Sugar ABC transporter permease (Cellulomonas xiejunii), 308 residues
Amino acid sequence: MASATATRPGSSDVTAGPRTDRRPPVPRTFYLFLVPTLVLFTLSITLPAVMGITLSFTDSVGFGEFQFTGLTNYVALFQDPAIRSSYLFTIGFALVTVLLVNVLAFLLAVGLTARIRAKVALRAVFVLPMVISGIVIAYVFNFLFSNSIPQLGQATGITFLEQSLLADPDLAWVTIVVVTAWQAVPSALLIYIAGILSIPGEVYEAAAMDGASARRRLVSITLPLVAGYVVINMVIGFKNFLNAYDIIVGLTNGGPGTATRSVAMTIFTGFTGGDYAYQMANATIFFLIAVVLAVAQLRLTRGRSALS
């Protein structure tokens, strides 16, 4: 006869006593090592941020005395067409660039994980742009767009290329997207390669035995299994592209006129032009947008155990 205290399948063993998987206490010495980091973070990040948010409610010009003006700067921001234009340009540029970067990076990752020769060397070549400074890349492409490409257009008779795209208010943003994508593709490429390599080879072998074509394996296996990496790359890329500054400065410096002036450039220009408190309010709003995206990125990253 079975004992009445026998443990049922799937139930917890109540006779095993209290759980012993509690984490050991952290030694106090560890907290001492945190003190320098906390002090530096507070002095360099937290304190300036608090001071900046406080000054956004004033009429400060960056020095001297100031008066508190309440929400005046924030109300003026929402009524300023130049501010709206900078946000529209920045968001549009970030959306187009993040789509272009992820499409190119995914296709390159598929190619560089296939059974081709010299794929390791090709991976190294494609990653090289990631280690070059953005401002250096921008000045190199500035020379190409301003001199080499117009000369090529004149030599070949392609009128579209005879004039520098950097001087065209309607097309200058295209050059920024191209150059930014050229530098950003490698980081997204590495994430996609990691995601594709994490897919078990048996899955592809079984699909091949069932007669699935390469295109069908790409659409029905690779894409669904790297969907988490796509989301993470999109969020990280969009957040980074919102802060675009160095490449825009090196290529167009916000021009022609203000056609390619991003939010970051608008804020920096305001700091040096006497609109300190006004642009500090702009920076506060931009900071809140970045915080929302960072929280979304953190939640998505935690939800993808494949990257942990």
The first helix runs from residue 28 to 55. Confidence is low (pLDDT under 50) at residues 1-16. The CA atoms of residues 53 and 197 lie 45 Å apart. The chain is about 70% helix and 0% strand.
